[in-house]
Every structure is written in C-alpha cells, then in structure tokens.
Specification:
- This protein has 317 residues and is an alpha+beta fold.
- The chain contains eleven helices and twelve strands.
- It is 38% helix and 24% strand.
- The protein is elongated and about 100 Å long.
- The two termini are 48 Å apart.
C-alpha cells in the first residue's frame, strides 16, 4: 500500500510539474491510472484531496487557478518549486563529507549518502570532493546497543519511552519511564539524558545497561526540555573528571591502562603490582569495578566500601 501511494503521489507531482496550463480534476483522473481505478467519483475526490495535501506538506507549491468557465485547475510551476543554487566551499564540503562517513549504522549511512547525492544534484561542483581534504581519516561512531535507534527516534519525535535499566549497583534491572532529550557518545559509550518520571528528576542512562526492548508511550512530555543538555559534563563528573580529591589504588602490572593514563603518580610495589594515585570523584567506584580483580582500593575507606558493595551485588546477580 505504501508503494502504491508513493507511486500515485509521484505521478500526480509529475503531471502538475509537466503541464503548461492548469489541469482540472477530471483531466488528472484521466491521466493517472490509480485515479481511474477509484471505485466512484467520491472515492477519487477524497483520494485526490489527500494526495494534494500530502504533496503540499512535502513542500510542493501547487496553485489553484479558475478559468473563464469557472472550472478549477491545478498546476505546480517550475519556477515556484526550484531551489536556489547551493554553493559550498571546499571546507564546508569536507565537513559534510566527514559527517556522512561517521555513521556505521545502515539506517544513518543511507540517509547521509542520500544527502550528499542531493547536494550533487543541486549543484555541488564535481571537482569538490567532500572526502579529499581528510582522506586519511576514517571517523566512526560505533553503536552496538539495540536501544540506540528507538531512543534516537524518540528524542527526535519527543516521545516518552519505557525500558528496563540495570544500575551498576543492582543485581536486577528495574523499569524506568523516561522523557528522552539527547544521546551523546563519551569515551566509547553511548548515554541518554532525559527526565525520569518516577524520580521526578533529570537522569543520564548508559545504553549498555538497558535490557530488553525500548517501548514508546503516547502522550506529551511533562517536563520542559532544557536548551542545553550537558550529557558529557554529567558523565564526566561521575567518572571523576571533575574530581578535587585523590584515591590510592593497587593495580596489577600490565593491566588497567586507562587508569594509568589518569594517574598522577605510579609506584612499583613488586610481585606484579603497582600503586597509583588517581583523581577521585563521584562514579569512580563504578569504573574501578569494571577492572575486576586487577584493582584493589587502598584509600579512602568510603571508596573501598563502595567498590566492595558493587562487587557483592555483581556476585549476587
């Protein structure tokens, strides 16, 4: 049915764009096979009005003209439906090319490729290669979580969602009702920022901890969407990026290179262990747990207790 309607809309658009004079409904019905197959005049009239409205919603400018006999005709003049020339310099074209190459997902890759083809058709010079300026770069934003696409669409359409989410300290996932605002990638992980209806507050969720399907819900948002959503800053504060304290940990030799990169000091202890001093902020315990038996927290005591609690929760789960 969708293919049949798309073909009908395309035929109607071609008729209206190709004619030199306004065409009446009768002439349009005789020119388009799908209209001829309409069961009655009323069915054709309803179909034609819907199609006309759909084309106008898509951006086609359709004029309604009345001739000397009082008959109504329709035409889409080419000068009213022609876009102005698109002019891009080499840097702008390169930026668009890089943006088109970033996504690995088939859905987004197709949209990006189609956008570049439209720019070519609209006048982007052939000698301008969107990829040439940065040909040695192969930027990628990998997305492995099944929740990414439904959440991306929900953010775009401003639709509430429901999903099961497992916190790092919890053995089992819990249902969450969220009004999604924005998605952002930070340090190789995707995060969703939004309004948690159950908790009545802004929250950030790591997509890899969403289990099961993301389900859309009807209705409008109950909380205002902020002009600026600071996903990266929020997650960075959890990971200790804005820490003003230090923690001392023991790290197995040859392991935990991300921790070593953050360390302010490193001391060899022998027997296959090193001692590191690293910035300590909210969320550091969750990060340390990911390194499992390769990390032992020495101090502060509250960080050690938090890590032990998380490990026990994982063992119970």
């Amino acid at each position: 049915m969708a293919i049949a309607k798309a073909e009908r809309l395309m035929n109607l658009a071609l008729c209206l764009l190709g004619t030199r004079r306004p065409l009446s409904k009768r002439e349009l019905r005789e020119s388009i096979e799908a209209y001829l197959e309409a069961g009655s005049e009323d069915a054709f009239s309803r179909m034609f009005e819907r199609d006309k409205d759909d084309l106008r919603e898509l951006g086609l400018v359709i004029e309604t003209v009345e001739n000397l006999d009082g008959e109504i005709g329709y035409v889409a003049r080419r000068d009213s439906n022609r876009l102005p020339p698109i002019t891009l310099d080499a840097e702008e074209a390169a930026a668009l090319g890089l943006a088109a190459k970033v996504w690995q997902q088939a859905r987004l890759a197709g949209a990006a490729s189609g956008a570049l083809q439209k720019l070519r058709a609209a006048g982007l010079p052939e000698e301008v290669d969107p990829y040439e300026a940065h040909g040695a770069l192969e930027p990628r934003i990998p997305v492995h979580e099944a929740a990414f696409e439904p959440l991306m669409l929900a953010c775009r359409d401003r639709r509430p969602v429901v999903f099961d989410y497992r916190k790092a300290t919890a053995a089992r996932p819990e249902p969450r009702q969220v009004e999604p605002w924005a998605l952002e990638c930070w340090r190789g992980h995707w995060y969703l920022a939004g309004w948690d209806r159950d908790r009545g507050a802004e929250r950030v969720f790591r997509l890899s901890r969403i289990t099961g399907k993301v389900r859309s819900r009807s209705g409008r948002f109950t909380a205002p969407v902020p002009d600026v959503v600071t996903v990266r800053e929020t997650v960075a504060s959890w990971a200790g990026e804005t820490a003003d304290r230090s923690a001392r940990i023991r790290l197995r030799s040859g392991a935990g290179y991300p921790l070593r990169a953050k360390a302010t000091s490193v001391r060899e202890l022998g027997d296959g262990w090193d001692e590191l001093e690293i910035p300590y902020g909210h969320g550091l315990d969750a990060w340390l747990v990911e390194f499992g038996p390769d990390v032992v927290v020495v101090e502060p005591a509250e960080l050690r207790a938090d890590v032990v609690d998380r490990l026990r929760a994982v063992a119970r789960g």
